[in-house]
User: Fold this.
Amino acid sequence: MLSIAHLTSAHPRRDTRIFVKQCRTLARQGYRVTLVVADGLGDEHDSGVHISDVGHSPGRVGRMLASTRRVLRRARQIDADIYHLHDPELIPAGLRLKRLGKIVIFDAHEDLPLQLLGKPYLTPLLRRLLAAACAVAERHACRRFDAIVAATPFIRDKFLRINPNTVDVNNYPLPGEFDADAPWREKRQEVCYVGSLSALRGIGELVEAAHLLQSPARITLAGRFSEVALENALSALPGWQRLNRPGHLDREGVRAVMARALAGLVTLHPEPNYLDALPVKMFEYMAAGIPVIASDIPLWRAIIQNHQCGVCVDPLDPAAIAAAIDYFVRNPQIARRMGRNGRRAILEKYNWPAESEKLIQLYQDVQAAAGQRRLAGSHGI
Assistant:
């Protein structure tokens, strides 16, 4: 039985939905699967997947140094056939595993150099220097890995120039995970945003938009603020009183929020790292059968217009966001029709079962290639 270890040092298990989804799919296919995490919550078994915890290290530096060392140590103990890395700080561990003769796959969730250019806590000069250094290190390491899994077609095209064995496996939802059949008459006059709450994700504009609403609508912000100072500043604005703040929710809570909402918000700022991204929440809204109010980013606009499943707005314009919310509140039949269109697109195209086939094929291909290399080596070729 082929054994596969997914390694992460940066994501506690509550934030590893994509990894767990991948692992459960593999377990159902008969693979022996281990997910290594570093959150201090202990080991457990989940749907045939063994979750192995190496302990939590506080702070960014602790995670990047202590946690990565413990993840590598546990990875060697597991002695898997294939190692699938999910964090850039694990790249040195991946190179070590390669030197030990292991099959290693790196999962590029984001364009890391572009992401560094958008970090607000770094000075502009430091951003450019770190992004350039990161790009060099990334190219050096990823040429040596057996394959690259990219989260979007844009990232795939970037890595194809570095490693020809690159595929995109998009984090599309499981259609059955969301209640798309929630009775529309039971919907509330509210819209929702689900995810991390930060300035670059447009939360400030959403609070301002709440104050400008002409309808009785409320905005549900489901998630945690990444910056305490931002939460404190926004809580003083008049729009704060038009918000529902349930905090971080489990998957059942997320489903409940989407089931009662008239629309879902994904109004991220047009930062370089978002321009070619495929935000998970946009497809989850579609899977839940509600229309999307999204940033007017060309890639997102093409999807939304092609499937007639929402509207695009300027994410930096609170008045435009408020007008879109009011539109769906005042036109529930249009909202319902667009929600159905989005759900149909998920069933036909943007769904995890179709993507998982690409991942399984990749594992089979790298395992076969490794076997051919060993056979050639044994014959002295």
